[in-house]
Design a protein that fits this description.
This protein is α+β, with helices and mostly antiparallel strands and about 475 residues long. Helix content is about 70%, strand content about 5%. The model is unreliable at about 1-35 and about 450-465 (pLDDT under 50).
């Protein structure tokens, strides 16, 4: 036996001896979830490298080569014996399978009803799963549809079980994918999506998706709750570890989406609601302008009180005192008091300006809300007259208007009442200061006039006594 012949025989023996090991390694390397092909290729290349290294060592050592050849021949004989055993076992199993198939054919008439029920249930299950999210972006497929008039064989039952197991596994996965989505304007564009098992699917900006009549077409829901959209967006961006989903098959999210926000609630008030809010804003603007005016007057009045020797006309107290001092001496006390009251009354309208309007608007707002309530109830009763009470949504518009206008009227009246009370309190405080300082100046003037009269009478009394 020449050396090349020995080498070829050794290689053949090594290959036959390593074939079962390689098959076992491949079967062990392929898990249920199908490991990547690159892993098997790397393991095969590593095994070939080891065999080549071993062969190179054996070529240099003839005795070792002959020993390896003998070992390979023994391994080959063992493999052949194992193959013969497996062939015999396979033949026996085929005979048993043929016997079972014959028996099944004999008993098929009794089991036909069972087979028909299995086929019907599997078909209904397939139809239900066709509307789910499990087939979106995943490797799972719908189970095969069994024939209603046939007897399912082992392969069909195994395929049905495998499909159901794959779909069950998809229920616990979060999948990111790219798919065409129809927006609210009807335009279809490729978007990044995320699928949460069989619960729901959403776009990259947190907008929830729904299936249209075609199970393969995705559309964006008209409205997604803000809290749900924020959590989904944060999860997709890696900024959050919590998800918002609806275990009630979308019913809770649909109810949340139908809940109107503040602007939509305001629009339900109708024309009466707009009028109430407009009057409320007008009253608040008037109250704010007057409050700023009173605050400026308060600052100037305090500065004037600190320097009564130099009167200014930028504050009510300065103007009142200027008019009082312009009268000059020689007037009766009643005339001075009347002129002083006149000057105070001239300043009072400026300090109380706008309070009457704010108070009136605070009283009118609830009345307008009541008007909207009555109008809404009239619309509701008209809907009941035309359509009956079978569909509550037909009455929802009138009821919403009836309730929203009442709320708007109350919300408008409360701040206006607070504003009117604040203005009245500030103006009364300023008027009290003006009246107090004016009374003090009048008293000082009258006392100064009495002292001057006494000083003028004292010399004449002295001459009379003399």
């Amino acid at each position: 036996m020449t050396l090349p012949t020995v080498m070829r025989a050794a290689l053949a023996g090594l290959w036959l001896a390593g074939a079962p090991l390689l098959a076992q390694a491949q079967s062990a390397a392929v898990p249920d979830d199908a490991a990547p092909l690159s892993t098997l290729r790397a393991e095969r290349e590593a095994a070939e490298a080891r065999d080549n290294a071993r062969l190179a060592e054996l070529v240099d050592d003839r005795q070792a080569l002959e020993a390896a050849l003998a070992e390979a021949q023994e391994a080959l004989a063992g493999v052949r014996e194992r193959r013969d055993e497996l062939d015999a076992r396979q033949q026996s199993q085929r005979e048993a399978l043929d016997a079972l198939n014959a028996r099944r054919q004999e008993q098929g008439g009794d089991l036909q009803a069972v087979f028909d029920e299995v086929a019907g249930v599997s078909g209904e299950l397939r139809d239900d799963l066709a509307d789910s999210w499990l087939t979106l972006g995943g490797d799972a497929e719908l189970p095969p549809r069994l024939e209603a008039d046939g007897i399912p064989d082992a392969d069909q039952v195994a395929g049905l079980a495998d499909s159901l197991m794959a779909l069950t596994r998809e229920t616990g996965r979060v999948v990111e994918l790219e798919a065409p989505v129809a927006g609210a304007d009807g335009e279809v564009a490729e978007q990044s999506l995320i699928r949460l098992g069989d619960l729901q699917a959403a776009t990259a900006n947190g907008r929830l998706l729904a299936r249209s009549g075609d199970a393969e077409r995705l559309v964006v829901l008209p409205k997604t709750p803000n809290a749900v959209a924020e959590r989904l967006t944060a999860f997709q961006q890696g900024q959050g570890d919590r998800l918002a989903f609806d275990p009630a098959d979308g019913q809770v999210i649909d109810a949340m989406a139908q809940t109107p926000n503040l602007w939509e609630r305001f629009q339900q008030g109708g024309a009466v609601g707009y009028v109430v809010v407009a009057l409320g804003l007008a009253g608040l603007l008037v109250a704010l302008g007057q409050y700023l005016y009173l605050a400026r007057v308060t600052v100037r009045l305090r500065r004037q009180l600190g320097d009564l020797e130099r009167l200014r006309d930028d504050n009510p107290l300065g103007r009142v005192l200027q008019r009082f001092h312009a009268l000059g001496p020689g007037h009766a006390p009643e005339a001075l008091e009347a002129r002083l009251d006149e000057a105070l009354l001239a300043e009072q309208p400026r300090l109380e300006r706008g309070q009457g309007m704010v108070k009136m608007l605070a009283a009118v707002a609830p009345l307008l809300g009541l008007l909207g309530t009555v109008t809404g109830m009239i619309v509701t009763f008209q809907s009941i007259t035309v359509f009956g009470t079978g569909d509550p949504q037909l009455m929802a518009g009138g009821i919403s208007q009836a309730l929203v206008t009442t709320v708007l009227g109350l919300i408008t009246a409360v701040p206006l009442l607070f504003a009117q009370t604040a203005l009245s309190s500030r103006s009364r405080s300023l008027i009290g200061i003006l009246e107090g300082r004016a009374s003090a100046v009048l008293a000082d003037t009258l006392e100064a006039g009495g002292d001057a009269a006494s000083a003028q009478m004292t010399p004449r009394h002295a001459d009379a006594l003399a």
